[in-house]
Structures are given as C-alpha cells and as structure tokens.
Amino acid sequence: MQRFYLITSSVEPLVQLVPLGVKLVQLRIKNASESDIRRQITVAKAICEKHTAQLVVNDHWGLAIELGCDFVHLGQEDMETADFNALRAAGIQFGLSTHDQTELDRAMSFDPAYIALGPIYETSLKKMKWAPQGLNRVAEWKTQIGQTPLVAIGGLTPERGAKVLQAGADSVAVVTDIQTAKNPAERTREWLKVCG
Ligand SMILES: Cc1ncc(COP(=O)(O)OP(=O)(O)O)c(N)n1
Ligand SMILES: Cc1nc(C(=O)O)sc1CCOP(=O)(O)O
Ligand SMILES: [Mg+2]
C-alpha cells in the first residue's frame, strides 16, 4: 500500500498535487450538490488515471459505482447504507474507518482493503467523540489486523507521520496539514520524502 495518502476537500488541489508523484488520493467532498460532486469525481478520476494514482471516493459509493471508480472509503455510518453486494459486484475495493474495538471487529467482518484508525492526534478538521488514539494504539491495531493494511489519520504532520509509520501504520492520511500549508506543493514534496 502507498505510504502517503492525500485527502482533499475538492478536486481543485489535485490538478497541482497529483503530478508531483502522489499515488493515493481521496476525494472527500462535503456540502456540494450531487451534480457538482459528480463533476468533481469525473475530473479527479481523469487526473488520477493520467498519473497512475489510485483515486478513493469518500462517502459517495453510489456515484463511485455509476462513474466507474474502483475504490471507496466508508465510515461506520456510511456502512449502514452502503450496498456491499453492489460494491463487490462492481469490483470496487473499500477502506473502512475504525475508532474503537467494536468498530474494528465490525469492520474486519467485511474483509476491507484497508482499515483506517483515527484520530491519531487531535484534529481540527471535524469534531470527533474519540480522544487521540496515540502511537501505542497504532501498534495494537496493526498486531490485530495482520496483513490488512492500516491507514492512520488525524492531526498528522510530516514529523508525526514518520513516527506513526514507525509504530506500524502502512499509510498516513493527511488533510489539514496540506490544505492549510502556505505552499501545498512544497509540503506535499516534504510528505513524499518522509514516506519514502
Ligand atoms: C482514510 C480515511 N480514514 C477515515 C476517514 C473518515 O471517514 P468517516 O468516518 O466516514 O468520516 P468522513 O470523512 O466521511 O467525515 C476518511 N475519510 N478517510
Ligand atoms: C476525516 C477524518 N476522519 C478521522 C477519523 O478518525 O476517522 S480523523 C479525520 C480528520 C483528518 O484530517 P486532518 O489531517 O486534517 O487532521
Ligand atoms: Mg464518511
């Protein structure tokens, strides 16, 4: 699995960042109309195909099927409504969010392409009911899930990302650190270096 996992809130940053060598990208759109989400997924898919990057569509599994995407990310609430049979029939891989043991047990029963654990550190992106998981929890999750890839998310910076990878994560997912960087391209290069 790719060690650096870039998540953006819209398709626009992908135009600049994917050509830098980012190979795993999540489009995490909130609060847009369905037609605009459809447009953004279509553009993101074209950019990722051109640069041989893997696009992961967050939440919108129905549109992912409709638009011929091959990877989605689902949280625990998304899992309530997702049609896993339809996803499997369409050959779409899925990654699942987890925050505690109950969620991990549930998620593993779906045989996901990866398990995400968060928030590793405090995040300013969204209000969360879980305290920061910390590095020991990363190691514990990896021990439990074995060969299933582990994605760590929440409050990550390049410095923290290196420690999280060392603790056992296979991949580090990042939103705010790049979204709010003065120079997102420069910051992305830094991440790519840290993730080797
Ligand atoms: C890689 C990764 N991990 C976790 C999440 C969070 O998913 P979810 O809990 O469904 O929350 P939203 O992102 O939809 O607000 C994620 N998107 N990606
Ligand atoms: C979207 C999201 N989900 C999380 C989880 O724990 O499931 S943490 C998180 C925010 C990650 O963004 P940032 O890099 O901005 O902290
Ligand atoms: Mg979700």
Automatic annotation (TrEMBL):
Reactions listed under catalytic activity: 4-methyl-5-(2-phosphooxyethyl)-thiazole + 4-amino-2-methyl-5-(diphosphooxymethyl)pyrimidine + H(+) = thiamine phosphate + diphosphate; 2-[(2R,5Z)-2-carboxy-4-methylthiazol-5(2H)-ylidene]ethyl phosphate + 4-amino-2-methyl-5-(diphosphooxymethyl)pyrimidine + 2 H(+) = thiamine phosphate + CO2 + diphosphate; 2-(2-carboxy-4-methylthiazol-5-yl)ethyl phosphate + 4-amino-2-methyl-5-(diphosphooxymethyl)pyrimidine + 2 H(+) = thiamine phosphate + CO2 + diphosphate
Top-level taxonomic group: Bacteria
Gene3D superfamilies: Aldolase class I
Ranges where the Thiamine phosphate synthase/TenI domain occurs: 10-178
Protein name: Thiamine-phosphate synthase
Organism of this sequence: Marivivens niveibacter
GO biological process: thiamine biosynthetic process; thiamine diphosphate biosynthetic process
InterPro entries xref list: Aldolase_TIM (IPR013785), ThiamineP_synth_sf (IPR036206), ThiamineP_synth_TenI (IPR022998), TMP_synthase (IPR034291)
Enzyme Commission number(s): 2.5.1.3
